[in-house]
Design brief:
The complex is a heterodimer. By secondary structure, chain A is α+β, with helices and mostly antiparallel strands. Chain A has helices at about 95-100, 145-155, 155-165, 215-235; strands spanning about 5, 10-15, 15-20, 25-30, 35-40, 45-55, 60-70, 70-80, 85-95, 105-110, 110-120, 125-135, 140-145, 170-180, 185-195, 200-210. Helices cover about 20% and strands about 55% of the residues of chain A. Chain A has a 16-stranded antiparallel beta sheet that branches. The two termini of chain A are about 25 Å apart. By secondary structure, chain B is α+β, with helices and mostly antiparallel strands. Chain B has helices spanning about 1-15, 45-55; one strand at about 30-35. Classes of the chains: A alpha+beta, B alpha+beta. The interface of A and B includes residues 202, 204, 219 and 222 of A.
Chain lengths: ~240, ~60
Amino acid sequence: MALDWGSITADGMQAAVDVRWQPGHVQVSSSAPLTVAELDVGVPITQISLQLDSDLQHWQFHDIHASLLDGRVSAAALDWPARDYQPVELANIQVAQLAALQNKPVVNVSGRVGGTVPVRLHKEALSIRGGWLTNATPLSLSLRQSEGVRAMEQANQSVDLALDAINPMQIKVFQARIDMSADGWLDAAMTIKGRNPERGIPVVLNYTHQENMYKLLRSLRISKQIVDTVMGDIR
Amino acid sequence: MRLVWLAALLPLVIACSPRVALEAPEKPITINMNVKIDHEIRVKVDKEIDELFDEDSDLF
């Protein structure tokens, strides 16, 4: 089974559910794990497996497991719509794939991160409060010689010196705190401690990043759809 | 006598070779960076592809 909500698509969906009906009340429960081969929200989430219970007003998902950015995502339970924040565990996420989400990536990064992201599913939105990520392996970072980096280097001398200090960087400690409001604005604050191996200098980079994730994911979906439509028509 | 003094000082002069040591600072360089990204979705297409989009108006 395949579904398409706007530009969010789900492929390879399999479900076995029990439906119990009484006057004025319907209860739906999965009798076996519901599986989705791929959910594309702009970033592919694959191998999704979960159990569900619902009265068609409130949905309770539990035993949730999926693959994301070459790592794993899991949650004991998620309610929709939810009143509280519920923890989602991320493990072994590949930061190279995370950085590649940017339209014009300015950095090359490698290594893996993991952590816990408390998520609240609103009726038509999602928010995050007090999420944290740390590195699961040593990370590395270098700047790409892109238009964006050149523009930053030329902006002023202190920026040029700062970029020079972190290019390249071997990272021993990575800590990130993540919040996202229901309108999609991500607010991430990172502390990155490492060393520039070429200059032999220890570096501490305090980095904050604000970006609207809904707009980022939407632009990724549009790009993919344009390519698929054009290629489909050419064939 | 002067020659004796010079001869006595010579090993000291030879032993005193100049040394310049460049050592990386032990205190880390701290960099604070704040980035805010605003997305503007702008699609620029060639005429042929524009016609293709007209046929598939559900795309956006």
